[in-house]
Amino acid sequence: AFEVEMNQQQQRARKSGKFISEDSKINWEIISNINGSDFRGYKEISLESKIIKYRKVDEYYEYVLEETPFYAESGGQVGDQGKIFNDDFELSIIDTIKSGDDIIHISKDYHKQLLKNNNVSCSVNSLDRNNIKANHTATHLLHSALKLVLGNHVQQAGSLVDSKKLRFDLTHYNKISDDEIDKIEQIVNDKIQENINLNISTMKFDEAKNSGAIAMFNEKYGDKVRVVDVKGFSKELCGGTHVSSTGEISLFKIISESSLSTGVRRIEAITNDRAFLYLKKIDGIISKIKVQVSCNE
Fold first, then answer.
1. Is 15's pLDDT higher than 60?
2. Cα–Cα distance between 275 and 138 in angstroms, integer?
3. Which helix (H) or strand (E) covers residue 284, if one does?
4. Distance (Å, rounded) from C-alpha 166 to C-alpha 162?
5. How far is Cα 171 from Cα 234, in angstroms, rounded to an integer?
6. What are φ and ψ of residue 69, in 5° steps?
7. CA–CA distance, 136 with 150 (Å, rounded to integer)
8. Are 175 and 198 in contact (CB under 8 A)?
9. Contact 133, 78 (CB under 8 A)
10. Among 161, 158, 139, 157, residue whose Cα is nearest residue 71
11. pLDDT at 16 over 80
């Protein structure tokens, strides 16, 4: 019953605030009669493609490409932003989502020239993508660290990964103490310092489960699944984007721990430059307090 209710809540959350309309009756304007939505973003963040169809939904435009480097929101990871352009026009992409088999690129921009020239260059915002990759891999490390510190009863009950932070909801009845937070942070940062190479592979679902890979209860999996393996520490089924090695995360810092509902806690954390700047800000505050109270300790 918990899984059913959690899945329904997540579906409601996905629908709220989304740019895409739920009205599937809005017709597409077809530019090219070719199959599209081939995702190439695991290895490329820019490539040449074609716009094959588009439509206007409220004040936004939705575009589908023959192939794309833009990751569509899934598994807690937000959709990519960037631009689609050629010599005649430029479309700023503010979100990417998936609807059925279509990867939909959402923009406020439109240019009639795309009807004459639908050959485009695609470019994902590389800074955001890199931060998202670091935060997503850190989420996997956090999941394993939570099990080590709190116990194997810990299960993922939701997550959000964007370029600014990561959010992880877990099943746990007690408040996570400061001492436990310190231990969790230390474990994750130790794995970052070890600079472990990630092994990402595709295998049959049953084979992946038998190998020890963790599957999320609210996700739907096909016969073939993508396995993200941080050797000796974390192994999960995941379709998201990740760093090549844990060292790319640089630094991990938990910034909040709270109760989401009975038996579910929420952790928010930051990585890379944001974690460094956060600690620098805290250090500055402590320095000012020391001056005010005339304390050197």
1. no
2. 12
3. helix 272-292
4. 6
5. 18
6. -95, -5
7. 21
8. no
9. no
10. 161
11. no
pLDDT band per the 50, 70, 90 thresholds, residue 196: very high
Residue 267 three-state SS:
strand
Average pLDDT, the chain: 92
Q: List the one residue out of 243, 238, 270 whose CA is nearest residue 254.
A: 270
Give the HSE-up count for residue 65: Cα atoms under 13 Å, Cβ half-sphere: 29
CA distance 121 to 66: 12
pLDDT, residue 138, reads: 98
3-class state of residue 185 by DSSP? helix
Give the containing element (helix H, strand E) for 283.
helix 272-292
Identify the residue whose tokens are 């979100």: 95
DSSP character for 172?
-
Please tell me the distance from the alpha carbon of residue 223 to that of residue 216, in angstroms, as a whole number.
15
Q: What is the pLDDT of residues 273-290, one digit of tens each?
A: 999 999 999 999 998 998
CA 240, CA 256: separation in Å to the nearest integer?
Answer: 24
First to last CA, the chain: 52
Beta strands in the chain (DSSP E): 29-30, 38-39, 46-57, 60-65, 67-68, 82-85, 90-99, 102-107, 119-124, 156-161, 166-171, 198-204, 224-230, 234-237, 252-261, 264-271
48-69: burial string, b at 16+ Cβ within 10 Å, e else? ebbbbbbbeeeebbbbbbbbbb
